[in-house]
Amino acid sequence: xxxxxxxxxxxxxxxxxxxxxxxxxxxxxxxxxxxxxxxxxxxxxxxxxxxxxxxxxxxxxxxxxxxxxxxxxxxxxxxxxxxxxxxxxxxxxxxxxxxxxxxxxxxxxxxxxxxxxxxxxxxxxxxxxxxxxxxxxxxxxxxxxxxxxxxxxxxxxxxxxxxxxxxxxxxxxxxxxxxxxxxxxxxxxxxxxxxxxxxxxxxxxxxxxxxxxxxxxxxxxxxxxxxxxxxxxxxxxxxxxxxxxxxxxxxxxxxxxxxxxxxxxxxxxxxxxxxxxxxxxxxxxxxxxxxxxxxxxxxxxx
Length: 302
Known about the structure:
3-stranded mixed β-sheet, alpha/beta, Rossmann fold, single chain, Ubiquitin-like (UB roll), 8-stranded mixed β-sheet
């Protein structure tokens, strides 16, 4: 059947209206939106490019959906995905900066290698989960968050582990964090100021011990190490070689009593080698075999 000119024009209008409605509905369903905040500070030409890239993404989503239903999926989807990523980079969604926060002890080169992102990479092509896994595997990293900041930035925020003590085990020293977990591959000499722990479960229990000792700050400053005894209690070593034997229960109370007694009688300056606080009604002092009238200066090694 041959349509007259008026009939052709009517048919064309109908087709255009139908196509427009379909595209509008699909766009609302699949296309991401660009807010004014995302485009603030960009020039008009740059904003147009970003909008074009997002339009490409939306259009490819429709195409991929059709390929899925048609059965022509694997190679076509991979090709479509690559095309979208490449096109988005050409339109302005490419990495220009990698912003890192929270780095103090992590080596800059190690972090950059783990991130593995270079300028010009397509922002949409980044495997964020893989970046997070690589960064989290670094010795000092405790937590990490990686995110895209459109149009051209990647933000990497890390929190680092806090060194707590040196754990002496089988003749070697291992740096441990506040959770009692080893921090491998460290130069122990840099952390010689930290207390030295001994005992199998010492790292896991040390955080509670050190927090308790801080109840008497002046006395806590003199602590140089602690030995876990039978998994139940602690012996604490001071800077002048005196060993403080803490009780299994009410250790905090015993520690406070020792601090008060030392303020009143300077017992820790005397020529003794150990103080036993395991008895409620008395303080047992073990004197040095060559004890005399000589008094120890605070902090002096003997």
